[in-house]
Amino acid sequence: MVRLGELVMILDLAREGLSVSAIARRTGLDRKAIRKYIARGLEAPAYTPRPARPTLLTPFEPYLRERLQAFPDLSARRLLRELKERGYTGGYTILKAVVRAIRPTPSPSFERRFETPPGKQGQVDFAFFKTTFTDEPEVERIVWLFSMVLGHSRMMWARFVARQDLQTVLRCHIAAFDSFGGVPEQILYDRMKTAVLGEIEDPDQPTQGIAYNPKLLSLASHYGFLPKACKPYRAKTKGKVERPFRYVREDFFLARSFRKLEDLNIQFTQWLDQLANRRRHATTQRVVAEHFAEERPHLKPLPAGPFNSVLALERRVTRDGMVSVGGNLYSVPDCTRRRTVEVEVTAGTVTILEDGIAVASHPVLEGRGQRRIATGHRTQPPPPNSQTPTEVAMPPAPPLQGGTVTPRSLAIYDTIKLNAVEPFAYLRDVLERMVNGYPAARLADLLPWNWKPVVNA
To answer: What's the pLDDT at 390?
Structure first.
């Protein structure tokens, strides 16, 4: 086989007067081939495609064409099982390639818009945004917009978050339900990992089941809604929640500055309440807030109790008395003895336990890289240059006119109850021990998380 460049070189050497033998020696080709190409002149060689060799699948191609012509949506996995019953011994990869080539192309059809009745469906999705906060001008931050849109009225609840983790998803669901004052019958998701773990293949059925995240199912059971995953690569199935993302980006996000994530959500909530949910929707031709007022009675009522599904973790305490949960650091008391503690995470609370007893409880911090030290966890004051935020106790109220009672903080009672101790019995026992000369070296044993009642024989 002679390439076009080699053919040009042969013709150039022939024009320079070299003999056929000399050209053959220089190019390494046979003399008869040299004569043929010189006689043919500058004509690009024409190559025909190599004939396809028969494969193990070739005898079954007529059957595949017949089946796909009758049922174009049959999967390659289903066809593989049928072919194996007919004696096929080949592999799955070549079958996929052949099915992809011979599957009939569906004729394009018009999109069908569907509307849901009041209270029937909500749609959930995330959108990706980049911004630079003025408090941190040297860092470009990635934030995600969680959005839930009611399918009937197009009422939208949304919040910018730093992560798409399961804890954030659950917390946003709860806040959205509280804002709506009710729960839709079903909620539509795409294939995000916090909602859908994957598909369950059933060899006895051509369709596949959906494996949902167990924590999401617990939330759905508590609030009484049905999670529903849309088909892969069918983003238009949940267009009611995806279409507003462009509206948010163009009408709100662009050409604005934000100090930090909290400021971003404050401005966004104001925009939602004053503009987005008060506009006349282009599809329904109704004002969103007024339309939602009609849909709200059709929503399911909120449950009586809070959602308290617990995610149990095990963490090590750092040298400075902090525990890492979700990229943030939470403090434990200085008297914590174990280096490994248990952590229970709910949608809004992080509780740290030592030997099964709660020693610290913190609200969940938004974002990553933050630290929180609770009041009473440190016996020594922080250094002057410390930037770590701590809980600030409220200043005591001024004494009433003519009174002699000095107000005291009641935080000690919260700490006692947090450790499953009855406050009156604990305080009485501790005061009696101190009056009776309890050793000063063992005062740490009288703290709420170490205290053990005296059992009289």
So the answer is: 60
